[in-house]
């Protein structure tokens, strides 16, 4: 076997080994993401039932370490803190989510939850801004009572 054939054979062996290794690592990542998805579904169930919220916060922190830039975890934390009556933390999480994804300013229901949270915290300026943004998009009828309540409470504070 000449020198060129040996180099080619060595290159071929390394290339095949690299492809096999990449496939193995890829499968491991898929399995890990499946596990993370199961955990995330458990968190969503916890939020919906308002049970096990502290445990869900810890799980969200672990997921957030893996998937740093995902605004979804901030929204989930905002809802959890809201359920735990920790409104200041809730507002911070929502604000972080808005900063990470400007498209959330088009989500009327999230804007109104944020407005209500900000109002509870006495941050009526941000509450009014969120309501104004939601009004520009269009507030569905089912949210009108919440909006009217917040606006009337803000107006009472002014007087």
Contiguous uncertain segments of 5+ residues: none
How many helices? The count is 7
Tell me which oligomeric state these chains represent. Answer: single chain
How many beta-strand elements?
Answer: 0
What's the order of the H and E elements?
A: HHHHHHH
Query: Radius of gyration, Cα only, in angstroms?
Result: 24 Å
The dominant shape is elongated
* Category from helices, strands and their pairing: mainly alpha
Biggest sheet layout: none
Question: What distance lies between the first and last C-alpha atoms, to the nearest angstrom?
Answer: 95 Å
Helix content: over 70%
Strand content: under 5%
Give the integer mean of the pLDDT values.
85
Name its key features.
mainly alpha, 159 residues, elongated, single chain, 7 helices, 82% helix
Would you write up a description of this structure?
With 159 residues, this protein is mainly α. It is built from seven helices and no strands. It has helices at residues 3-49, 53-66, 71-83, 87-100, 108-120, 124-137, 144-158. α2 (53-66) packs antiparallel against α3, α4 (87-100) runs antiparallel to α5 and α6 packs antiparallel against α7 (144-158). The radius of gyration is 24 Å and the shape is elongated.
